[in-house]
Amino acid sequence: MRNGLFTENSGRSETDQLSQLSNMNTDSLNEEVHFRKRVNKTKKKDSQTSGKNEFGSNAREEGAQEYIQLFPKQNSAITLTDTYSINHIACISGEIAWLSNRKKVMKINLKGRILDTYIIDDTRASASHTVDVNGDLFFIKDNDIHRVSSDGMTKTFLTPAWNVLSIYSSHISDDLILGTYIIDENHFKAKLLKYSKNRELLQSIQYHQGKSLYSFPLFISENTNRDICTTDIEKCVVTVVDGSGVFRFRYYGHSTEKGFFPTGICNNIYGQIIVCNRHYANPSVHLLSSNGDIALIILTKNANGINDPYGVYADDEGNLYLGQHGSNTVMVYRYLQ
Predict the structure, then answer these.
(1) Dihedral, CA atoms, 85, 308, 303, 276, nearest 10 degrees?
(2) DSSP SS3 for 238
(3) Nearest to residue 283, comparing CAs of 25, 100, 27, 32?
(4) How far is it, in rounded angstroms, from Cα 141 to Cα 318?
(5) Contact by Cβ (8 Å): 276, 299
(6) What angle do CA 15, 18, 22 make, to 5 degrees?
(7) Rounded CA separation 291/301 (Å)
(8) Which of 3, 19, 34, 163 is deepest in the core (most CB within 10 A)?
């Protein structure tokens, strides 16, 4: 993947790779870009990373990876009227974007004009909507999943037994993945549920070695390798399972930062994971390799002027769209060369 952030090792030693990193011009990132050494295949996965990770027994061992220079630059901005926050960006296709805040789901053009609005009541500012491969909108309201087809018709699609926090439509299988919870005898339980478009429950993901994987799965994405990535604001962690629901790894943030409070998450076409950290001490955006063994902080308050990153979306052209709480502007960065 020569155009991605990480590529297969071209034969250079790890020392040479780290030397390249240390000699990079980091002025544009105000020395806020950090690199996590790739994991040596012969050693434990958590013994060499500068992040705070936990790896499962099925963590994939792939070839060594090489760092490519990355300096995100803000290209443009999309400003909306009568909008306080932008908490989730679900889809950008052509000149159309779908995004939401606590009160409404909005269809806009890339000039910021609102083309359509659907009223919701999302007190948690979660991934309250998604768009499938056919362009149909699905959104959460009053614990129902509503579907808006391309002809504009809105119908109740599904009413799960558990409370729905978040929703994501797979661009691989076209199934819906829901983040759900229930309070049972004063105990809070959470799990992911996968449904077909025929409303058939296909999968339930809840435990790893008898312990709950999730507490509050607020945002969901699916990687190119079918891994399911979630941010959990109760555990303050990114949790990744494979397509079968088997635990792969958790990411607790970068060791150089004081705190980690993950919200919006997405994946790019190279299989990398991009996640917002809205912790007040160090608001930032992180980029992880698909294995979780390499992490970069690619956007920060000092270097890029972000204050409360919340929703994030990566298109196929190397652009990153960032929505923030308390802002009516989507910031657009060129983050891949």
Answers:
(1) -100
(2) strand
(3) 32
(4) 33
(5) no
(6) 130
(7) 27
(8) 34
- What H or E segment, with its residue span, contains residue 85? none
The 10 Å CB-count burial string (b at 16+, else e) for 135-148 is ebbbbbbeeebbbb
223 Cβ contact partners less than 8 Å away, ≥ 6 residues apart: 229, 240, 267, 271, 273, 290
**Helix or strand (DSSP H, E) at 52:** strand 51-55
| 64: CB partners within 8 A, 6+ apart | 8, 9, 14, 38
End-to-end CA distance of the chain: 12
Instruction: Find all residues with CB under 8 Å of 273, minimum gap 6, and list them.
Output: 221, 223, 229, 238, 240, 251, 265, 266, 267, 287, 288, 289, 290, 292
- Show the tokens assigned to 102: 């606590």
Tens digits of pLDDT across the chain (337 residues): 333 333 333 333 333 333 333 333 333 333 333 333 332 232 333 333 455 677 775 554 443 333 344 568 888 999 999 899 999 999 999 999 999 999 999 999 999 999 999 999 998 899 999 999 999 999 999 999 999 998 889 999 999 999 999 999 999 999 999 999 998 877 889 999 999 999 999 999 999 999 999 999 999 999 999 999 999 999 999 999 999 999 999 999 999 999 999 999 999 999 999 999 999 999 999 999 999 998 999 999 999 999 999 999 999 999 999 999 999 999 999 998 7
User: Which residue ranges form the domains of the chain, and what is each CATH number?
Assistant: 6-334 (2.120.10.30)
